[in-house]
Amino acid sequence: MERPQLAPGEEWVWDYPRPPRLERSARVIRIVFAGAEIARTNRAWRVLETSHPPVYYVPRADVRAEALRSAVGGSFCEWKGIAAYYDVVVGDRVAKRAAWTYEEPMHPYEALAGALAFYPGRMDACFVDDERVRPQEGDFYGGWITHEIVGPMKGAPGTGGW
């Protein structure tokens, strides 16, 4: 795949490494569900993996605990380990398995322990600074797409073998 000409500040997802890179982000991350802000932080982690938009992990202390309900089942990431899932609940609205965490992530992702990632497509809105995020296509990956993220990106139909 030929690398496109990037504007200043743009990131091409094919420049991200595999295994993924973990980096701190001081940008303001906000998550809204059922009209309530359920998370806000400027202490998030970004996970950057080849062909994927970034996934933001919010420290548990910066998420409204009452908005989380343990969900059944889990998954396994070859890099980070075993993920546990949460439903997001505000009033009578429920977004099933809309957030996940690694309680005991594998090396070198230990800093993610207990932090939560959210599927932006299952929330009312997710923001990086003041920009509303577009969700990564598909129902498995939870990437956050902002104006500076350039693809093509994994997740859309026909990209499963990437």
Can you list the strand order of the major beta sheet? Answer: 2-5-6-10-9-8-7
- How much of the sequence lies in strands comes to 35-45%
Going by CATH, the homologous superfamily would be Domain of unknown function (DUF427)
CATH fold-level topology: Metal Binding Protein, Guanine Nucleotide Exchange Factor, Chain A
DSSP helix fraction: under 10%
Roughly how many Å apart are the termini?
11 Å
> Would you tell me the overall average pLDDT?
96
Q: List how many beta strands DSSP finds.
A: 15
CATH level 1 class label: Mainly Beta
CATH architectural category: Beta Complex
User: Counting H and I runs of at least 4 residues, what is the number of helices?
Assistant: 0
Shape: globular
Q: Give me the Rg, rounded.
A: 15 Å
The topology string of helices and strands comes to: EEEEEEEEEEEEEEE
Which residue ranges are poorly predicted, with pLDDT under 50 across at least 5 consecutive positions?
Answer: none
Tally of structural domains: 1
User: What structural class is derived from the secondary structure elements?
Assistant: mainly beta
